[in-house]
């Protein structure tokens, strides 16, 4: 009887934890799509992109997170809006594929090219964002997960592949209603981000997206210090590189975290520091104006 009580307690705790994480992810998905588009648009015309670092050796956590993953079977809900495809994007050619008789071929081409874009060390941040959105609108997130998991199995030495898988997991969270499934996907994303950072500690996508997702978890889970540490590390890393438009985002998020925990002076200081680096960024300017 005592054993059954303990088992019931553990199952209940797992379900509640998953639900709490899923609730945070629902908020993250809704806010993330709007905040990224607005923060990127202002600087893209003035700054250039630099190549991202190559990955090092594999960490076993990548294979572990894939081996324990549950199959994703939830249907995907589409939207009517059309994504903007940056000129020169590896997925630009598939965006014009008309519906109808060539849908199957066009869909497979989009899946392949979009996933290739997500894992490429030479693709820009805007291109990767477009690839994710195209996969969502085309209903290809499940196939992208299968593809990326297979790529990690075949070649587990790529931090880019692990980071891309984590981002697709989170995008998938925004297309399903099952909170338990959302919680599972969120935890899997967090695991593969950790694995990506152990392969390559300078992987921007993994560190920023992990911090951003955790920033929407309930404060009772005490992840604020970890979020801030990831963002401080990321800012230190990117300030030694040529500036890119999306580098403004960690400054904005770190200031938000400082403000959330009552450190208003630190929040203003980091927003000002970011505004010096990115004077045309409207998100940072708006935060300073509201102070």
Task: Label this structure with key terms.
mainly alpha; 67% helix; Serine Threonine Protein Phosphatase 5, Tetratricopeptide repeat; single chain; 291 residues
What does this structure look like?
The relative contact order is 0.14. The protein has one domain: Serine Threonine Protein Phosphatase 5, Tetratricopeptide repeat, CATH 1.25.40. The N terminus is likely disordered. The protein has 291 residues and is mainly alpha-helical. The chain is built from 13 helices and no strands. The protein is 67% helix and 0% strand.
What's the structural domain tally?
1
> In which range does the helix fraction lie?
55-70%
Number of E-type strands: 0
Which class in CATH terms? Answer: Mainly Alpha
Estimate the global geometry from the Cα principal axes: globular
Short synopsis of the structure:
The chain contains 13 helices and no strands. It has 291 residues and is an all-alpha fold.
Write the layout of secondary structure elements.
Layout (H helix, E strand, L loop, with lengths): L1 H40 L19 H7 L24 H4 L7 H17 L5 H13 L3 H14 L4 H15 L5 H21 L4 H12 L8 H15 L9 H13 L3 H14 L4 H9 L1
Helix pairs in contact: 1-8, 1-9, 2-8, 4-5, 6-7, 7-8, 7-9, 8-9, 9-10, 10-11, 11-12, 12-13
